[in-house]
Design brief:
2 domains, transcription, 5 helices, DNA-binding, about 20% strand, elongated, 4-stranded antiparallel sheet, Alpha-Beta Plaits, WH_DNA-bd_sf, about 160 residues, Arc Repressor Mutant, subunit A, Tscrpt_reg_AsnC-like, alpha+beta
Length: about 160
């Protein structure tokens, strides 16, 4: 499907990334199509797996997780068992919001959101304690969010 994406599809994807609540009529008006054409294009993009879902982007305060952090993880080894244990942990841990597999010095980058520093400390201890999996962690606390998921965070001051 990516080969057959036209300029209107790309415009629709950009608009939906910025505001997933746009109606077909609103999208149609913005990209110059009828609402029915827009609906068909949106459905085709969803079915092709190019639109993965529609989500509300909550403030950390709204979901009770005002402390955000970034954790770089280096695995001790890359055996199937070690990777499976690590993947299972990160998939089940609610505090871990995003997991990216990397090239370079670290194997994974985790974006985490927790209620307080004590919760972050517990999460780090749990990660470090994964049996024969994790060899090194480096954690940074997020001081300010400027942009997430391609959207600029409004300044509260």
């Amino acid at each position: 499907m990516t080969d057959s994406i036209d300029d209107k599809d790309r415009r629709m994807l950009d608009l939906l990334r910025q505001n997933g609540r746009l109606t077909n009529q609103e999208l149609a008006d913005l990209i110059g199509l009828s609402a029915s054409q827009c609906s068909r294009k949106r459905i085709a993009l969803e079915q092709a797996g190019l639109i993965l879902g529609y989500h509300a982007q909550l403030s950390p305060e709204a979901d009770g997780t005002p402390v955000m952090g970034v954790v770089e993880v280096r695995l001790q080894n890359h055996t199937g068992e070690a990777v499976a244990i690590f993947h299972d942990f990160v998939c089940k841990a609610d505090a871990i919001r995003d997991v990216l597999k990397l090239t370079g010095d670290y194997d994974y980058l985790l974006k985490v959101a927790v209620a307080d520093l004590a919760s972050l400390s517990r999460l780090i201890q749990e990660l470090a304690g994964l049996r024969n999996c994790v060899s090194h962690l480096r954690t940074s606390v997020v001081l300010e969010r400027l942009k997430e998921a391609g959207v600029v965070i409004p300044d509260k001051s």
